[in-house]
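Troubleshooting log. The previous structure file for this entry was overwritten by mistake, so regenerating from the original sequence record. Sequence copied from the archived sheet and checked twice against the printout by T.R.
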Amino acid sequence: MLRGDNGHGKTNLIEAIGALAHLGSFRGAPTDAMVRHGASCAVVRSLGRYDGREILIEARFPVTGSPTALVNRQRVNRRRDLSEALTVTVFSPVDLEIVQAGPALRRDFVDRLLCDLHPRNDSVLTEFHKVLRQRNALLKQLGGRLDADAAITLDVWDQRLASVGDRLGSLRAKAVELLIPLVDDAYRIVAGTRARESVSVRIHSAWWPDALEGRLAAARDDDVRRGVSTVGPHRDDLEMRIEGLPARTHASQGEQRSLVLALRLAAHRLVTEARGVAPVLLLDDVFSELDEHRARALVDALPPGQRLVTTATTLPEGMSPDAELVVHSFPQPGDNGTRALSVLDHRVVDG
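Regenerated output below.
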């Protein structure tokens, strides 16, 4: 457990662990926001143990350029290799935006689940976004006019986008299908006996399950005119309903909180079953956002495995940490006291 006042760096530590798994911030912060002001990069290192062997993970986050990572001193060129070394499930107050915000966060939730389920799925996502960028660049270059030569080039990109898009659509649909009963079960547990509502999640798509190539052909005139790809997996959404009504617009904030907790618990269970090992649970001050009933229900619903919990107060009944790290901060020399460096003040180990 990490305990400390607000603003002293607890989330920074949790975010650093999450960044080792995803090479990015679970809060969606840009890379330069993760680097100390005035520095050219941030470096995060962790040493863990799994199945009797040590795993050293190191990641470098430059202000400009792409993050890089090493696993046991070996360069990792694919995120799937990083995922095989460390997988995490993050519970955070910002999770509420998965329900409340736009579809991009919900797509990101599903796509991260795909990579956690099977690290090889990362290559499908990488290829899709690469092809999509190339197609969009061509459409923008056309300036709303399509001649015969450009049409031939666009045909090539349509075929490539359709091929990888169909694969991504299938992966998303299968993952969400497996998630549906787990989300419903977890929601009833987190919301307690008051939860008599039915919960449903599904991929909302303007093209799936049809073949994407036909939809791209039908949308070609509109795509050329607008200079952007208007149909495909990048436009999909994860539709969530409670009692048949959209959770984003019709659910109370308490119901929305229960729903995002259920999503995280269901995804964690699905990944554990698929890979045979539980991801590390990171709970960032999540209990402060819950009423007493939901806090107790979440404690009861948490699966076994390693957990790192941050709090500015006390933990709910039933949470008994093996170790407590108290986080303080002090002005960093040379930064005019405007920056804080987190340190671990003391540690208490039960038993």
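The mean pLDDT is 89. Archived copy saved in two places this time.
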